[in-house]
Specification:
By secondary structure, the chain is mainly α. It has 10 helices and no strands. The protein is globular and about 60 Å long.
Length: 217
Amino acid sequence: MSPRSAQANEEMREQSRERILAAALEVFTEKGYHNATISDITARAGVSRGLITYYFPGKQNLVDNLLDRYIDSVTAILDVTGTPDERLAAIIDGVLLTVAQTLPIQRMTLSLVIHPSTHPLFARAEARKEDQVAGLEDGLRGIFAARGADDPALEEVLFRSVLEGVIFKAAVYQDQYPLERVRRRVHDMYGLPAPESALIQDDPPPVGRMRAAEAGG
């Protein structure tokens, strides 16, 4: 049997890394950062402890990788073209679609942000991505300036607060949260045309009360 090529070996390494990161995300989401163990992640990934520590020396390294990817995905949403209104609409849709498709990472990130003992992990991730985060803020301010806002910096803060509130609720209530209707309401808040078609999925019926999802649900 001929030896595997360098490319095949690299593909296998990448597959192992991805399997480990996916397992870590599941365990962090279900148990929280402090309660999760490398043994939990090893069992979930179906790999040896030695393989995990080869790629990721500890829990912090795992969560650092997950947070870096999260921030990369958020800041990349700004990379849209068109008029200021078209760009703003595309950013709203991009954020909400990402939320719908990546609820586990949203829930993990929220848990890290709101707990004093883990907030420094997120703060360090933002510091590592300082240029990207600053670029996101400046880009949003530029859009609001082009739309004629009196205080583009304040509009940027408010806009991010609105979307972060939506992310929080969607992460907590998951399938119970009316994300598509909220999307249309946010478009309306900013004087944008109503979306022509659904972007995400059918919303739950607008009746009853939302109940917080169980951890890991």
